[in-house]
Specification:
Two copies of one chain form a homodimer. Chain A has 200 residues and is of the alpha/beta class. Helix content of chain A is 54%, strand content 12%. The two termini of chain A are 14 Å apart.
Chain lengths: 200, 200
């Protein structure tokens, strides 16, 4: 069976960067954009729209979890699209994991691929470090204060936690659901990747 | 400033074993029995009694956290002893941490030594692995079923969590209070220690 690493991560903690370095260290495939491209192909939706959905940028998906019903035809249509995207995402993840050793970031991959016995990593960081990393990666026209940045980070993570809870019934970031939780404030990300590659 | 590693751990997860290997890898001092010996000397209490207290084997210490008052003279006397032992423990930890690079297991060391910027590790494991490890380390005359063993592990950890909460106001095992949380079911403990030594 292929070796699978899944990485859950707080926004701004450097989870993608860690995945990238770890994939290089281990010679594993690292899928990211390819997943969205493949979902777009299978659902006939535009890539940027698929991206919008899988990043949970809309709240449409979540009311269902609280048992409320959305009555408008528009919402019904969107709900079907969302469900189709998430269902195709699960298919794509399984197919990729069956192809070769690989690393997958986010997407509830730890849960979707649990039969393949993945090494499940959760990446987090101190708020100040997350703010700094977000500022470094922000588009040039974005001028958020530290306070605004913090609010934004908290909002993204709240949505990730909600989505994870909806899909898995588990608590996002709770150590019980991971083999390893690592605060990236501890060392440069390359060094963390190098150390983790010894463990896996 | 010396490098300090603190290790919080679930009962049966191999936290002490990891500390031992990590100390060897890094050439750090690893204090364990020495702490109890030193507290016994300073408080004029028997070592086995100090051990009993610092392992939270009695519930006397905890009602205070809920604001209840213990009225009997016997309890007052014990409370004073408990407070003295915990206060001396904090002193001993600080003195040891000032002496050299070191690793300390449990004892809220992550919180007590926070000014020294310790690398805080939390060690946990799957229940089945914890039961196996406890069985391996159990005295010969102990014949607990898996169910009894599980209950015992849960009870010890409940007390550890309570004690940690009382002393620090924080949640025991919550990733926010650690740089690294590691499930020892992932790899042999020697390998985990080796990988972590690269990080620290």
């Amino acid at each position: 069976m292929n070796k699978i690493i899944t990485i859950g991560r707080e926004f701004g903690s450097g989870g993608r960067e860690l995945a990238h370095h770890l994939a290089k260290e281990l010679g594993f495939a690292y899928y990211d954009k390819e997943i969205v491209e493949e979902i777009a192909k299978r659902t006939n939706l535009a890539q940027h729209y698929v991206q919008h959905i899988v990043e949970h940028k809309s709240a449409v998906f979540f009311p269902i979890t609280t048992g409320r019903t959305l009555h408008t035809a528009g919402s019904d249509y969107m709900m079907r699209q969302y469900t189709e995207v998430y269902s195709q995402q699960a298919n794509v993840l399984r197919e990729m994991a069956e192809k070769s050793d690989c690393i997958i970031v986010g997407r509830c991959a730890d849960y979707i691929l649990k039969d393949m016995n993945p090494t499940r990593i959760f990446v987090y960081a101190d708020m100040q470090a997350k703010i700094q990393r977000c500022r470094k990666n922000a588009p040039e026209h974005e001028h958020l204060s530290d306070h605004q940045m913090k609010k934004m980070i908290q909002k993204v993570d709240k949505n990730r936690a909600k989505y994870y809870r909806h899909y898995t019934g588990q608590v996002w970031g709770d150590r019980e659901n991971y083999e390893l939780c690592v605060n990236t404030s501890i060392s440069p990300i390359e060094d963390i990747a190098h150390a983790l590659s010894h463990l896996i």
